[in-house]
From TrEMBL:
This is Histidine kinase. PANTHER family: SENSOR HISTIDINE KINASE YPDA. Pfam families: HAMP, His_kinase. It comes from Paenibacillus etheri. InterPro entries: Bact_2-comp_sensor_kinase (IPR050640), HAMP_dom (IPR003660), HATPase_C_sf (IPR036890), Sig_transdc_His_kin_internal (IPR010559). The keyword Membrane applies. The keyword Kinase applies. It is a multi-pass membrane protein. One of its GO terms (cellular component) is plasma membrane.
Length: 579
């Protein structure tokens, strides 16, 4: 299973968890606010509708009562005895006159008794020259009631009711003004009815009025508010709207409801301070704010708890892993809680301890293996190479070529000094490269110049690069031993090197014709086995040493050379810190 490494972390896990929590919580809070708002709106409308229904009920009751009184007044005027008294008042006998007047008195008293709104009921009969009243009885004119009613009838435009001072009258005339009937409406009872409507709310006021007559009767002495409310109602009537409204009057918001009293041609208007109507809803606002604050507190506490229980342990674990990446395994994570992180931290501590021991053991094994391989390689000095070299020096001395003998002796001494000395397993690359060239010169002398070599100069960068000892010479030795064996052709060995930041590539090629494709494929398979290859000599030894130190991307790779023989590439991929 491959674990894919992530890039730069932009969001921590706990931040994502908190954001997801908030994303899920916001619709819940929004829904709660919306439901509360809708509930408050519905409740407010229900309260207003209830207020409107209450005012409408009382206004209709009042309207019905006034209509009832008017109907009785009209029935009184149409009574045949009253009509007889009006038409024949002068010609009636005394007995019949008394009887008809008594009958009129009975009818008037019935009207007074029929409604608590009626204070007095009376009639003026012109033919008798008298007024008949439930309050003053039978009185000849002129009298106070007659003067009062006659003055009211002088109004040119007949109103629906008449008012003089604090008295309100319903007046009907008939028979060409030969008969007047009048009913006095109790202002106190009307005011009592208005007060009954006003008791729906403590801060409500009710009044009767119209645009022409103004405020007729009110439960308050504050005429400024009622006048402004009446103006607003008049403006509303211009648009033919009977819908109650909430308007500001003198800086306060009022719920205003009005109903038309057709029997009086007046509007019954109720206005209520909006705060009183919405006061029961204020607790819902308070609860809404409290719930909103609680939601914020919950989000803060949740974020803090997630940070405390998840983010901090995870951050500690991430920091520890980053320290492990720097090869620091002397780490111990402590957990104060007995939760899942306690198990993870303990598992990590055990893993780090085991990993440290494993790395130490593996490292020691690698070092030991490299030392043993190097010692083994150093011990694999071909005695024939040494014998032949000494024989070549002997023959040079015999023929008097002392300069060549001296040069060969010097090269041979440097060669054996380099491969047999103890010390560091790593040497500067240019020394390893020069050692391989010295070996080539020795071999070319041995083979009587039947074999030559060509090489490339290495860059200055090679002076600072360290490589393992004896990684080039074994490959070159393999060429001299196998590429030109029993071959009469002129052999050439080509050596080159490339040095870049982080990588060194050494190429050894030859123009031999003895190597078959099957041999190259067999060698490639053996090299591909890497550290699994049990053979520890020659090319396999070099390949294993490079892979042990630098990893599987380094090592020895072979292929067919463009010159016809074998092409061997030594690749060393090192880290810059080793430079």
């Amino acid at each position: 299973m491959k674990l894919l490494a992530t890039g730069k972390v932009k969001w921590f896990v706990y931040q994502k968890v908190v954001i997801v929590f908030i994303v899920f919580l916001i619709p819940l809070i929004s829904m709660n606010i919306w439901v509360n708002y809708k509930g408050m709106s519905f409740t407010k409308n229900a309260i207003l509708d209830s207020s409107l229904a209450g005012a409408s009920f009382y206004s209709k009751q009042l309207d019905k009562e006034i209509y009832f009184i008017r109907n009785q007044q009209l029935q009184f005027q149409e009574d045949k005895n009253i009509q007889k008294l009006s038409f024949r008042g002068e010609s009636l006998e005394k007995y019949e006159e008394v009887e008809l007047i008594g009958n009129a008195e009975d009818l008037l008293n019935r009207i007074i008794a029929s409604s608590e709104y009626v204070v007095n009921a009376g009639v003026y009969v012109k033919s008798l020259g008298k007024t008949i009243s439930g309050k003053t009885g039978i009185t000849s004119i002129p009298n106070m009631e007659y003067e009062k009613i006659s003055s009211l009838l002088n109004v040119k435009q007949k109103p629906s009711f008449y008012r003089i001072g604090d008295e309100i009258f319903l007046i009907e005339t008939g028979d060409n003004a030969e008969l007047w009937s009048y009913i006095e409406i109790s202002k106190g009872k009307l005011l009592e009815a208005l007060n009954q409507i006003a008791t729906l709310y403590q801060e409500s006021e009710v009044f009767l009025g119209s645009n022409e007559l103004g405020n007729i009767l009110s439960t308050t002495d504050d005429q400024l508010v009622s006048t402004e409310v009446l103006r607003l109602i008049t403006k509303q009537d211009q648009f033919n709207s009977d819908i109650p409204e909430i308007n500001k009057v003198n800086g306060k918001s009022y719920f205003i409801a009005h109903n038309f009293i057709s029997s009086l041609n007046l509007s019954l208007i109720m206005y209520v301070n909006q705060n009183e109507i919405t006061r029961p809803l204020s607790q819902f606002n308070t609860l809404l704010y409290v719930s909103f604050v609680i939601a914020i507190v919950v989000m803060i506490l949740y974020s803090y708890s997630v940070n405390l229980m998840i983010h901090r342990p995870l951050s500690k674990l991430v920091k520890t892993f980053r320290m492990v990446e720097t090869d620091n395994l002397d780490l111990v994570i402590e957990s104060k809680t007995k939760d899942e992180f306690y198990y993870i931290f303990n598992s990590f501590n055990r893993m780090a301890s085991r990993l440290k021991r494993s790395i130490e053991e593996n490292y020691e094994q690698k070092i030991a293996l490299q030392h043993s391989q190097l010692k083994q390689l150093q011990s694999q000095i071909n005695p024939h190479f040494l014998y032949n070299s000494f024989f070549n020096i002997y023959m040079m001395c015999k023929v008097g070529d002392s300069d060549s003998a001296a040069e060969l002796s010097q090269k041979l001494g440097s060669y054996y000094q380099y491969i047999t000395r103890s010390g560091s397993d790593e040497v500067p690359f240019f020394k390893e490269y020069q050692h391989a060239l010295d070996y080539c010169e020795i071999q070319c002398i041995r083979f009587s110049n039947r074999i030559s070599f060509e090489y490339e100069e290495i860059p200055v960068l090679a002076n600072a690069i360290l490589v393992p000892r004896l990684i080039i010479q074994p490959v070159v030795e393999n060429v001299f031993e196998h590429a030109f064996e029993d071959d009469s052709r002129q052999g050439v060995v080509y050596i080159g090197a490339e040095c870049e930041e982080g990588i060194v590539i050494i190429t050894i090629e030859d123009n031999g014709i003895l190597l078959k494709d099957e041999d190259i494929e067999y060698l490639q398979k053996k090299l591909a086995m890497g550290l699994k290859q049990v053979e520890k000599t020659g090319l396999i030894n070099v390949n294993n040493r490079l892979q042990l130190k630098y990893g599987p991307d380094s090592g020895l790779f072979v292929s067919r050379s463009k010159y016809g023989g074998l092409r061997a590439e030594l690749i060393v991929k090192y880290e810059s810190k080793e430079v």
